[in-house]
């Protein structure tokens, strides 16, 4: 019995298919375009093709992420907060705190003893503490986003970045460069700044072991290290941090199905035009 | 036309009825917040008009006078005044409810004065002298209105006004009683329309509308149980349906509130006293606005109980499964009160989602994920 989870984030679309034993059958990641619906279809098609199944074989489909309402063939829309919690719970049974650093927002989620969401905090109003912040500064520094983690970890100390506003921080970085600061030390400073921001936001939930870092930001080893430094102990990272939301969505779908919830109507596996 | 359609029309066209009455020779007195007694203005045969902002219009002209980090509700109201939308007011009355309103009164008064302008001083710290202080301030307000109208205030008229508003309070409580049903036959969105519409028309007309609306709600069939979470709202000014509608669209029933545009302005009656002004003084001073402070009593638990105990009834009798705080950004008093209230409600096993937002309908969509996640969490 296959269940699909589709996570449409602000920058990436992720699809995961699991079976009734919660085993992952396939996953796929593609960029999110302006045409969410079109992409959701393409990435889902690709994922299904990897399992050898057909669309009609999917018993339940859950859409999540900020584009979740744009998936016409999903049986339910569930927020990424619930889905991340479910996905992380499957991967790390001891998880208590999840720090999710996404493309355009960051979240802290507290799990209760049963692994359910007990509380959460969210920064969704500005780029501070998000992947977008790193992306903008990477451009200013003329380096690749994917290399940032490695570069930052080679630094000898770090340059204090005090502006969390992306626009002002960009200006601050330019000033520090002009003063002769090294790129590696600036990158390390950015990691410190973002880590400080998300950890302080999460602190109000009560930080305790195990802390899991997920989302695109978890791909940056330097940032993860900085977060561990702020938290005061080691943090864990899923093998594929991009897809925990989609995995959780697939598992939430499996849970629904297990409780007897069935798809409401006939699903049309087709894209829907934004402007009809 | 149904009562709801009537209410919706008044809600959409705020100020329309007040303009009509003014054209017919009535004096309309605009005021802010929950500390200006409607009864006094009504006893002078004038129309009290609760000033509202506009969540759907951007704030532009007011930015030349007020810093952007000032309360966006206050800025929005002043913005409307600058654009001439409050030119129909004969009077402008502001209580010293909070510092922003107090300071804005002076800026408003300097740049856009009404024929009658007045500020009522309201004590912040409740203590043995508060009643006497506030009563004196209300007496001074009466003297100013006497000068403005050229008429003496008649005690009988004040007593009549007290009875009139108590009648409206009783009716609104009756309407709120209907929200206790599960699922309720009346939505939080509809309640907001009823209350906001009532802030710009004479109480006697509002009473007729509420009466008719209650009858309409009672005629509605009882919906099937839906298991949706029941939400208690706490915060300040929600004079637009956008936010409450969003919460309800996300899959919840908004069933009770402690908002200055909600139960806070009408819940308690004015007591019957020999001098009606004594009852009025007591009633308005006890308004549960976080700008007022009770001296700390006992240990922390007792202090929280003393400050927030009145909400216990709202939570239990209306069976709220969760609370959402909607705080208009930069409202210091609410932001400082929020964490204490959250602690108190959590101690009653009520989960809390605290939202701080601009006073604007354009930012609502961003709140959707947080509200949905909260509903999933408590559902």
How would you briefly describe this protein structure?
Chain A has 276 residues and is an alpha/beta fold. Chain A has eight helices and nine strands.
Oligomerization state: heterodimer
The coarse overall form of chain B would be: globular
Based on DSSP secondary structure assignment, what is the total number of beta strands of chain A? 9
CATH A-level architecture of the largest domain in chain A = 2-Layer Sandwich
Helix content of chain B: 40-55%
Secondary-structure element pattern of chain B, one letter each: HHEHEHEHEHHHHEHEHHHHEHEH
CATH superfamily of the largest domain in chain A: ATPase, nucleotide binding domain
CATH class of the largest domain in chain A: Alpha Beta
Radius of gyration of chain A: 19 Å
Total number of beta strands of chain B: 8
Mean pLDDT of chain A: 90
Query: What would CATH call the architecture of the domain at 3-153 in chain B?
Result: 3-Layer(aba) Sandwich
Distance between the termini of chain B: 38 Å
State the distance separating the first and last CA atoms of chain A. 35 Å
Strand composition percent of chain B: 5-15%
Note down, in words, how this protein is organized.
The complex is a heterodimer of chains A (276) and B (379). Chain A is α/β, with parallel strands linked by helices and 276 residues long. Helices cover 38% and strands 18% of the residues of chain A. Chain A contains eight helices and nine strands. The two termini of chain A are 35 Å apart. Chain B has 379 residues and is an alpha/beta fold. Chain B has a domain of 151 residues: Rossmann fold (3-Layer(aba) Sandwich). The mean pLDDT of chain B is 95. The interface between A and B is small, with 14 and 8 residues.
């Amino acid at each position: 019995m296959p269940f699909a989870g589709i996570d449409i984030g602000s920058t990436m679309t992720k699809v995961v298919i699991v079976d009734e034993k919660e085993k992952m059958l396939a996953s796929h990641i593609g960029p999110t375009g302006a045409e969410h619906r079109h992409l959701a279809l393409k990435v889902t098609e690709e994922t299904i093709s990897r399992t050898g199944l057909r669309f009609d074989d999917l018993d339940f489909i859950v859409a999540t992420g900020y584009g979740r309402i744009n998936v016409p063939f999903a049986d339910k829309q569930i927020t990424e907060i619930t889905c991340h919690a479910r996905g992380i719970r499957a991967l790390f049974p001891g998880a208590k705190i999840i720090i999710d650093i996404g493309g355009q927002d960051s979240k802290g989620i507290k799990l209760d003893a049963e692994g359910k969401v007990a509380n959460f905090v969210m920064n969704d109003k500005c780029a501070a503490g998000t992947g977008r912040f790193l992306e903008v500064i990477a451009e200013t520094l003329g380096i690749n986003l994917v290399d940032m983690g490695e570069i930052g970890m080679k630094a000898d100390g770090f340059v204090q970045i005090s502006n969390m506003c992306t626009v002002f921080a960009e200006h601050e970085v330019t000033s520090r460069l002009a003063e002769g600061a090294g790129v590696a030390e600036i990158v390390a400073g950015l990691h410190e700044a973002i880590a400080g921001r998300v950890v302080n936001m999460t602190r109000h939930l009560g930080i305790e072991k195990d802390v899991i870092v997920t989302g695109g930001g978890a791909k940056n080893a330097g940032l993860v290290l900085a977060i561990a430094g702020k938290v005061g102990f080691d943090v864990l990272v899923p093998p594929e941090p991009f897809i925990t939301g989609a995995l959780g969505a697939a598992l939430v779908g499996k849970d629904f199905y297990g409780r007897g919830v069935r798809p409401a109507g006939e699903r049309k596996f087709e894209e829907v035009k934004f402007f009809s | 036309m149904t009562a709801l359609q009537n209410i919706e029309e008044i809600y959409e066209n705020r100020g329309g009825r007040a303009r009509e009455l003014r054209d017919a020779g009535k004096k309309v007195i605009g005021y802010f917040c929950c500390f200006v007694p409607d009864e006094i203005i009504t006893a002078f045969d004038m129309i009290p008009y609760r000033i509202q902002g506009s969540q759907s219009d951007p704030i532009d002209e007011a930015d030349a006078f007020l810093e952007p980090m000032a309360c966006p509700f206050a800025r929005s109201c002043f913005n409307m005044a600058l654009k001439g939308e409050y030119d129909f007011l004969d009077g402008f009355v502001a209580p010293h409810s909070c510092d922003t309103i107090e300071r804005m009164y002076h800026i408003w008064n300097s740049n856009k004065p009404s024929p009658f302008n007045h500020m009522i001083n309201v004590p912040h710290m409740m203590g043995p002298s508060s009643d006497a202080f506030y009563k004196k301030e209300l007496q001074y307000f009466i003297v100013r209105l006497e000068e403005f109208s050229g008429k003496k205030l008649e005690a009988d008229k004040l007593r009549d006004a007290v009875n009139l508003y108590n009648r409206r309070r009783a009716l609104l409580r009756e309407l709120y009683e209907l929200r206790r049903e599960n699922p309720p036959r009346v939505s939080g969105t509809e309640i907001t329309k009823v209350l906001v519409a009532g802030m710009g028309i004479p109480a006697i007309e509002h009473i007729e509308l509420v009466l008719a609306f209650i009858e309409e709600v009672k005629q509605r069939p009882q919906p099937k149980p839906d298991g949706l979470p029941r939400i208690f709202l706490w915060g300040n000014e929600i004079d637009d349906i956008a936010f409450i509608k969003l919460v309800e669209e996300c899959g919840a029933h908004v069933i009770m509130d402690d908002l200055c545009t909600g139960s806070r302005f009408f819940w308690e009656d004015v007591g019957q006293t020999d001098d009606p002004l004594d009852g009025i003084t007591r009633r308005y001073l006890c308004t549960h606005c976080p700008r007022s402070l009770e001296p700390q009593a006992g240990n922390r638990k007792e202090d929280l109980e003393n400050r927030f105990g009145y909400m216990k009834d709202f939570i239990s009798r209306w069976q709220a499964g969760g609370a959402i705080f909607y705080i208009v950004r930069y409202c210091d008093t609410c932001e400082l009160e929020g964490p204490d209230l959250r602690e108190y409600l959590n101690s009653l096993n009520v989960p809390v989602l605290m939202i701080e937002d601009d006073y604007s309908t354009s930012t609502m969509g961003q709140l959707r994920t947080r509200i949905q996640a909260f509903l999933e969490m408590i559902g």
